[in-house]
Amino acid sequence: MKPVSPEPSADCPHCPRLAAFRDEQCHVHPDWFNAPVPPFGDSDAWLAVIGLAPGLKGANRTGRAFTGDGSGAMLFQVMTEYGLARGGYDHDAEDTLTLDGAIIVNAVRCVPPANRPTPAEIRACQPYLRGPLLALPSLRAIIALGRIAHDAVIDAFGLRRSENRFAHGTEHRLQEGRILIDSYHCSRYNQNIGRITHHMLGSVFGKAVRYR
Predict the structure, then answer these.
(1) How many angstroms separate the CA atoms of 133 and 162, rounded?
(2) pTM, entire model
(3) What is the CATH code of the structural domain delimited by 16-211?
(4) Segments making up each domain of the chain, as ranges
(5) Looking at the DSSP assignment, which residues form a beta bridge with residue 47?
(6) pLDDT tens across 60-104, in order?
């Protein structure tokens, strides 16, 4: 893995399409965050949760990962049940929620149109995924929420995708004894169609806490 990269600037220009969309949202919603969303959680985390990208009305609005849309309610409830979150989640970055032993990082830091980043945009943002992971001295486990997050982690650790295919609940061994565990993303859409349930997400975190 390459050296740690700094955090992206608030007006990060690396992905022209994302920068243009971000600027558009600044004009439409000037009171929203509308910038690359930083990691959220414990700087000494043993567990990293990797998401896809900020939701338009979620993290792009509030400035905190998984905060303000339907995905966060399920994620933070499960994390609370496993002792990884405490306080109250209120769909707002000003609530009392904190993470304990865990950190959340998105594979893509800026909100993408239709929630679909391009392969080039995912590659451009890879240093901002790799950097926070390298900065965690106690990191032992990673949960990837969805295939894109899974592939981003595999690429960040320089492994072969063909030898580490995404499948819900599957564990993959990374360097230095770290473990990657796959989960379907807890998006509202996946919840609505039954692709992910509270129990399914909980079972993934149940696997992760064995490495605490």
Answers:
(1) 22
(2) 0.96
(3) 3.40.470.10
(4) 16-211
(5) 102, 141
(6) 999 999 999 989 999 999 999 999 999 999 999 999 999 999 999
